[in-house]
Amino acid sequence: MSSAIPLSIGTTSTLTPVAAGKRVLLAEPRGYCAGVDRAVETVEKALEKHGAPIYVRKEIVHNRHVVETLRERGVIFVDETDEVPEGELVVFSAHGVSPAVHADAAERNLRTIDATCPLVTKVHQEAKRFARDDYDILLIGHEGHEEVEGTAGEAPEHVQLVDGPDAVDKITVRDESKVIWLSQTTLSVDETMETVARLREKFPALQDPPSDDICYATQNRQVAVKAMAPECDLVIVVGSRNSSNSVRLVEVALGAGAKAAHLVDYAREVDPAWLEGVRTVGITSGASVPEILVRGVLDMLAEHGFGEVQPVTTANETLVFALPRELRSSRR
Ligand code: SF4
């Protein structure tokens, strides 16, 4: 796994404004993480191996372009396994599923491939382990998010959802000496730490997770956007509205000093009015966003005079996950 390394911007250690000109700062890392890459490749390989149609429960990753492209290739996206005909193949998305979903699929004789990100699986295992030891588990995350539903479903009788600092007041536990917090993988690091601080005020013996639950990709993208945001009149985050980590990047950019920040799925959604009076535009993308969509935004900006692009690099990522066992022989 990669880790954050000291800030470097392009080949220098300081930001260099282009004289009196317009410029783009391009965050690195951005876009696809190892878990998304694996999940998308899982569906592509399953299509090659088994032929269309194949079924995917929920969006394989939270990105409109990815979902629409796979749909055109013969993927049928469903909300629940009871929409999949008996005996057919269903892929579980990168966000993970609860044991109840696996049980439903088995009952309907569905063939399954699990594309859950291994870093989500790690949080599931933590939930199971601390439930076995009879802890109260305070799961910090967004209500209704698929990942949170999957993790909570591992131990519903032990898990309580904490959706942000303001939710802390209503939390009660059975034994204050056996309380641990876990989290969704794609949260804002700063907001999560605020929630943890509030929880710890209430439960001083609160235990931390054995390792970071907010994943390396979420953290690295937030660090990069924080590095460039103070220089930016505008930050454009490429990503979908239902992508938690993409939405967090907009919030982090604004919190770190960007004068404005917007989320767009496609270049055509960039409003030219946003560019009026702007000298520096920062660009980043969520962990489920293919680079082609960022290229589209860069091309659009170049047409508006923002041809100068400076990378802002805060980490190098090299992590790759193996495909699910059923598809391992066919990795490209
Ligand atoms: S954002 Fe993190 S947890 Fe989610 S798929 Fe990517 S690496 Fe896995």
UniProtKB/TrEMBL annotation:
<feature type="binding site">
    <location>
        <position position="288"/>
    </location>
    <ligand>
        <name>(2E)-4-hydroxy-3-methylbut-2-enyl diphosphate</name>
    </ligand>
</feature>
<feature type="binding site">
    <location>
        <position position="244"/>
    </location>
    <ligand>
        <name>isopentenyl diphosphate</name>
    </ligand>
</feature>
<feature type="binding site">
    <location>
        <position position="185"/>
    </location>
    <ligand>
        <name>(2E)-4-hydroxy-3-methylbut-2-enyl diphosphate</name>
    </ligand>
</feature>
<keyword id="KW-0411">Iron-sulfur</keyword>
<feature type="binding site">
    <location>
        <position position="245"/>
    </location>
    <ligand>
        <name>isopentenyl diphosphate</name>
    </ligand>
</feature>
<dbReference type="InterPro" id="IPR003451">
    <property type="entry name" value="LytB/IspH"/>
</dbReference>
<feature type="binding site">
    <location>
        <position position="95"/>
    </location>
    <ligand>
        <name>dimethylallyl diphosphate</name>
    </ligand>
</feature>
<feature type="binding site">
    <location>
        <position position="245"/>
    </location>
    <ligand>
        <name>(2E)-4-hydroxy-3-methylbut-2-enyl diphosphate</name>
    </ligand>
</feature>
<feature type="binding site">
    <location>
        <position position="33"/>
    </location>
    <ligand>
        <name>[4Fe-4S] cluster</name>
    </ligand>
</feature>
<feature type="binding site">
    <location>
        <position position="244"/>
    </location>
    <ligand>
        <name>(2E)-4-hydroxy-3-methylbut-2-enyl diphosphate</name>
    </ligand>
</feature>
<feature type="binding site">
    <location>
        <position position="245"/>
    </location>
    <ligand>
        <name>dimethylallyl diphosphate</name>
    </ligand>
</feature>
<feature type="binding site">
    <location>
        <position position="288"/>
    </location>
    <ligand>
        <name>dimethylallyl diphosphate</name>
    </ligand>
</feature>
<keyword id="KW-0560">Oxidoreductase</keyword>
<dbReference type="GO" id="GO:0051745">
    <property type="term" value="F:4-hydroxy-3-methylbut-2-enyl diphosphate reductase activity"/>
</dbReference>
<feature type="binding site">
    <location>
        <position position="62"/>
    </location>
    <ligand>
        <name>dimethylallyl diphosphate</name>
    </ligand>
</feature>
<protein>
    <recommendedName>
        <fullName>4-hydroxy-3-methylbut-2-enyl diphosphate reductase</fullName>
        <ecNumber>1.17.7.4</ecNumber>
    </recommendedName>
</protein>
<keyword id="KW-0414">Isoprene biosynthesis</keyword>
<feature type="binding site">
    <location>
        <position position="243"/>
    </location>
    <ligand>
        <name>dimethylallyl diphosphate</name>
    </ligand>
</feature>
<dbReference type="Pfam" id="PF02401">
    <property type="entry name" value="LYTB"/>
</dbReference>
<feature type="binding site">
    <location>
        <position position="243"/>
    </location>
    <ligand>
        <name>isopentenyl diphosphate</name>
    </ligand>
</feature>
<feature type="binding site">
    <location>
        <position position="95"/>
    </location>
    <ligand>
        <name>(2E)-4-hydroxy-3-methylbut-2-enyl diphosphate</name>
    </ligand>
</feature>
<dbReference type="GO" id="GO:0019288">
    <property type="term" value="P:isopentenyl diphosphate biosynthetic process, methylerythritol 4-phosphate pathway"/>
</dbReference>
<feature type="binding site">
    <location>
        <position position="244"/>
    </location>
    <ligand>
        <name>dimethylallyl diphosphate</name>
    </ligand>
</feature>
<feature type="binding site">
    <location>
        <position position="243"/>
    </location>
    <ligand>
        <name>(2E)-4-hydroxy-3-methylbut-2-enyl diphosphate</name>
    </ligand>
</feature>
<feature type="binding site">
    <location>
        <position position="145"/>
    </location>
    <ligand>
        <name>isopentenyl diphosphate</name>
    </ligand>
</feature>
<dbReference type="GO" id="GO:0016114">
    <property type="term" value="P:terpenoid biosynthetic process"/>
</dbReference>
<comment type="pathway">
    <text>Isoprenoid biosynthesis; dimethylallyl diphosphate biosynthesis; dimethylallyl diphosphate from (2E)-4-hydroxy-3-methylbutenyl diphosphate: step 1/1.</text>
</comment>
<comment type="pathway">
    <text>Isoprenoid biosynthesis; isopentenyl diphosphate biosynthesis via DXP pathway; isopentenyl diphosphate from 1-deoxy-D-xylulose 5-phosphate: step 6/6.</text>
</comment>
<feature type="binding site">
    <location>
        <position position="62"/>
    </location>
    <ligand>
        <name>isopentenyl diphosphate</name>
    </ligand>
</feature>
<feature type="active site" description="Proton donor">
    <location>
        <position position="147"/>
    </location>
</feature>
<feature type="binding site">
    <location>
        <position position="145"/>
    </location>
    <ligand>
        <name>(2E)-4-hydroxy-3-methylbut-2-enyl diphosphate</name>
    </ligand>
</feature>
<feature type="binding site">
    <location>
        <position position="95"/>
    </location>
    <ligand>
        <name>isopentenyl diphosphate</name>
    </ligand>
</feature>
<keyword id="KW-0408">Iron</keyword>
<comment type="function">
    <text>Catalyzes the conversion of 1-hydroxy-2-methyl-2-(E)-butenyl 4-diphosphate (HMBPP) into a mixture of isopentenyl diphosphate (IPP) and dimethylallyl diphosphate (DMAPP). Acts in the terminal step of the DOXP/MEP pathway for isoprenoid precursor biosynthesis.</text>
</comment>
<feature type="binding site">
    <location>
        <position position="215"/>
    </location>
    <ligand>
        <name>[4Fe-4S] cluster</name>
    </ligand>
</feature>
<comment type="similarity">
    <text>Belongs to the IspH family.</text>
</comment>
<dbReference type="GO" id="GO:0051539">
    <property type="term" value="F:4 iron, 4 sulfur cluster binding"/>
</dbReference>
<keyword id="KW-0004">4Fe-4S</keyword>
<feature type="binding site">
    <location>
        <position position="117"/>
    </location>
    <ligand>
        <name>[4Fe-4S] cluster</name>
    </ligand>
</feature>
<feature type="binding site">
    <location>
        <position position="62"/>
    </location>
    <ligand>
        <name>(2E)-4-hydroxy-3-methylbut-2-enyl diphosphate</name>
    </ligand>
</feature>
<feature type="binding site">
    <location>
        <position position="288"/>
    </location>
    <ligand>
        <name>isopentenyl diphosphate</name>
    </ligand>
</feature>
<dbReference type="GO" id="GO:0050992">
    <property type="term" value="P:dimethylallyl diphosphate biosynthetic process"/>
</dbReference>
